[in-house]
Amino acid sequence: MRALACLLLSYSLLPGQPLPGTQPLTADGDPVPRMLSGMQAYLERLSELSRDNRHPTRERLRTILGVVDARVPFADLEQVKTGARTFVRWPALDGVHAEGFYYRPAREPRCHVVVLPDPGSSDAASPAYAEAGCDVLALMLIDRHDTHSGSRELNKWTNQTHREWIQRMAFPVGRTMLGYEVQKALAGVDWFAARKPARPIGIHGRGEGGAVAFYAAALDERIQAAAVEDYFGEREGVWREPLYRNVFGLLKDFGDAEVASLIAPRALRVWPGGMAIDGPAKEAPGRRGAAPGRILPASMESQEREVRRALQLRPGGWLRAAGGGIARELGGRPPKGILPAQTMPDGESQRRQVGELVEFTQRLVRQSEKTRADLWAAIGPRGVADVFLKEVIGVLPGPPAAPAARSRKGMERAKWQAWEVEFDVREGVFGQGFLLLPKDQRPGERHPLVVVQHGLNGRPQMLIDASEPRDKEVYRNFAAQLADLGYVVYVPQNPYTGDFRHLVRIANPLGLSLYSLIRAQYGVMLDWLVTLPQVDPERIGFYGLSYGGKTAVRIPPFDARYKVAICAGDFNEWIRKLTSVEAPYSYMFTHEYEILEWNMASVANHAELAQLMAPRAFMVERGHRDGVGVDEWVSYEYAKVRRFYDEAGIGERTAIAFFNGPHRVDGPAAIEFLRKYLGR
């Protein structure tokens, strides 16, 4: 509390004289809550505006769901007996099976239906369809328990649902939990489509099964009718729902109306129900890490608005917001009555299905190094940079705002004067930080600029004049050290401080990320800084620790004005760090759900990002006892960078500096590296 009070006091000093060329900064108090609030409001506006400029295509939907792997052909269903039960399974992907029940009517079937009950619920639809004369495959979805969400070998367990557990490792390899289950449903459609004589095919889902049925019908025109129960509605609030519903870029081209338009003119029936699913279970001993999220019942008003939009996009009688199944549209009979519901199998079946998807996804992780190499060979570094910016990080729409920089004097030391600065980035979005200007600069003299970035939950002051022993130990007043040496130093306040993680959930459906916002801040920031008479625009460097190290490989490689980048306390075999179920320091076991980056494994790991700095200088600073990883992983990933620079004939422009310490700034080697390439 004392540290926070000191920080707030430093933000609340009476405004001093502004820096020449800027307006007075009069805002008081902590800027972080204002920054995060402005970003949230901006992203929510983009979500609402996204309805006006969507261009839905099946190929785009297939890509963002990750329905990109070849399905396995098969001749017939396999019967599996568990206790007194007999159910069926069929292959979907290599090593991945769907499991459920098969219902066959007494007479020759008139139609085929794939049924997807909500996880853990009873299945009343399948017997009814069988009574109506339909052949039925009822698919069991991965459930919302957390029994298998962890590692038996490590004895590390989470309270992430099975669905979130799989989503987390799938997202960085360009797959989703929804996409995997769409593949299982479509494997059932494949089997029905191969049957002779040909019969109409339909799909019916409820809750999570409704989402799977909805997307499957949009992607596969062999499905002639679809019923979607307890899912259809407005999607702009999807960020509040569980993490396993996160689809990167969904709202850029799709609300439910746009998905429905891909089903037209085939039949679609939608209706809301009263199902509500709470968020993740409370933490239990040894189990934590689940992301927040809750499924609320779709309101009738929300559904009606989306139905009206869908009918505006594709007029006609194909869409009905009414109860009931789809047997009539497929040529079957209306059921005379509902047969007894069958509870879907769980237990051992869930263990198998979760295990198969984990192994399939981990195999994609292992193959991703070759995937990236193939992409690099095909499109080259400029192409990789373009794909990474547009499809992994995401770029904010529209031009930046005029900076309208505001400033006031801050702390002063013998060799430098600090200024607190704010500037506009987008409507409601601003950047903030501290500028340290050497006092010994003569008129017309320009000094090198170094941007120094704090880590998670950090503040610029921690790098300038830390008041707490822990902050001094970690950051070592590194910005002040550089200013004492005569560098112009800028220390930004990044938004990964406080309650920020939900911003990633709002951003992802827009095809954006936290770094979309950070890059926009940095762009305007540097545009303004290079206009200052004290700054040499040809000598700009970057140093970032921890989350600031993440920034070091996501900002300077894409801005040619940076001549040096130093990644401290973060450089890693990042894809394994995100997805591993074998390493205890993997993000699979932590609460940091915002750290996931869509399809990054297919585009660029840390080595490829560092290579994008070439021919400019790049350095890694690594403490042997830094718990973010192990030296072996860091060394393996950096070896690829070193080889790349050596083979380009510029090996002297990269370095790795190990030191015998924990997660903190070290400094001496980094300062020497900055001096070598920036002067001073």
Structure characterization notes:
The chain is an alpha/beta fold and 680 residues long. The chain has 2 domains: 54-368, 3-Layer(aba) Sandwich (Rossmann fold); 397-571 and 615-678, Rossmann fold (3-Layer(aba) Sandwich), CATH 3.40.50. It has 21 helices and 23 strands. The strands form 4 sheets. A 10-stranded mixed beta sheet has the order 1-15-16-17-19-18-20-21-22-23, with helices on both faces. A 9-stranded mixed beta sheet has the order 2-3-4-7-5-10-11-12-13, with helices on both faces. Strand 3 (85-93) and strand 4 (96-103) form a beta hairpin. The longest helix has 46 residues, at 348-393. The model is unreliable at 1-15 (pLDDT under 50).
List its salient traits.
single chain, 680 residues, alpha/beta, Rossmann fold, 2 domains, ten-stranded mixed beta sheet, nine-stranded mixed beta sheet, 21 helices, 23 strands, disordered N terminus
In short:
The protein is α/β, with parallel strands linked by helices and 680 residues long.
